[in-house]
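New to this. Look over this protein:
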Amino acid sequence: MSKYFGTDGFRGDANTVLTVEHAFKIGRFLGWYYGKEHKARIVIGKDTRRSSYMFECALAAGLTASGADAYLLHVTTTPSVSYVARTEDFDCGIMISASHNPFHDNGIKLLNGNGEKMEDSVINEVETYLDGGYGELPLATGADIGMVIDHAAGRNRYVGYLISLATQSYKGIKIGLDCANGSTWMIAKSVFDALGAETYVINNTPNGLNINTDCGSTHIEYLKEFVRENGLDVGFAFDGDADRCLAVDEYGEEVNGDKIMYIYALYMKEREKLANNTLVTTVMSNFGLYKALDKAGINYEKTKVGDKYVYENMRQNGHLIGGEQSGHIIFSKYANTGDGVLTAIKVMQAMVAKKSTLSELAKPVTMYPQVLKNVKVTDKETTLNDAHVLAAVKAVEERLGNNGRILLRASGTEPVLRVMVEADTHELCELNVDYVIDAMAEQGYLLGVK
């Protein structure tokens, strides 16, 4: 695990954990690193947080001070930065966002020239510089100083690209959009209006402080109510930077990422277009998804938690669809990262082509009750490998059989183990989670449960 950058960027409370000095230095390093043999071109996008403007200025100052040209997409989505980076020959892309976190947090996500999450080798070099490992980098002077260039046209091209991917008109369909007061506040409605939908939008008045506040994919209950009250056919909720999407059916019931992946994987299989007949998930996808995939004859692979690992599996094996229950879904034929608006378009494609409601398409996936508890322990590795703890896990596996599962894994960022059980009832989940936690306590590893 890196010191500053996690699986989804350098993230933390603005000017406390992630400071303006960090942003300036990241810009300085990237401008120098990519500008060794040519004048670097780097594209920057941001979400609607108040601090995003500050970080944008700092990054641009750092880049231009090192001689790079900084192209500003302004308020836009993470997938749009990915798209522009890979289609317009940029050296790399930078997205300023803390995704679904509250407004006071922010983050810096780095994307390579292919629009993929930045390679660890480059991230390690950035962190070395942040810790003083390179000393003072040379400053550009005279005509070598970089320029800051308005590149709103790149964002507009991305919107046009999304519209071009829709294969049918949405005329007569009532679609609700929850923009989370974030990156899609201008983009999402324009896309669905262009495709002929009757578009109803909420949480599209950002003020710098209200991103993700009681709205968007992390608070989907508001979209559920909105869909029911207005008699809409379907609703889509995005997170702050729009790399996630959750859906709501015509009854106001949530359709999560697992169900969305099932719907589109089945749609592709029925048309003999599902590459390798395989869907890629993380280990946290619901047991009900796997039961439905088994019944449909669709194979699946499981990765560690994180869309980064899902994408790596897809790229290495040529799979077309993968993602997480949270709605972070990747359609690798069209994008190299999760894209919330693209996900919504793909859901609509299945609905319109099959002339079905969303509830009908999602019905085969019965979500199993799930209980997850985070356990603080004296030592993660020792606890994970303890014979008594392993025996408890095995006993739960045998008890659940084919009607549930248990997952015990270490957190990558905290001194905790995560114990998760899925079973027929919530009570059965609780019973078996506590059974494993009790085994940890009996061996003296337990420090607390949350």
Remarks:
- The longest helix spans residues 426-442.
- The chain has a mean pLDDT of 96.
- The first strand starts at residue 5 and ends at 6.
- The chain is about 40% helix and 20% strand.
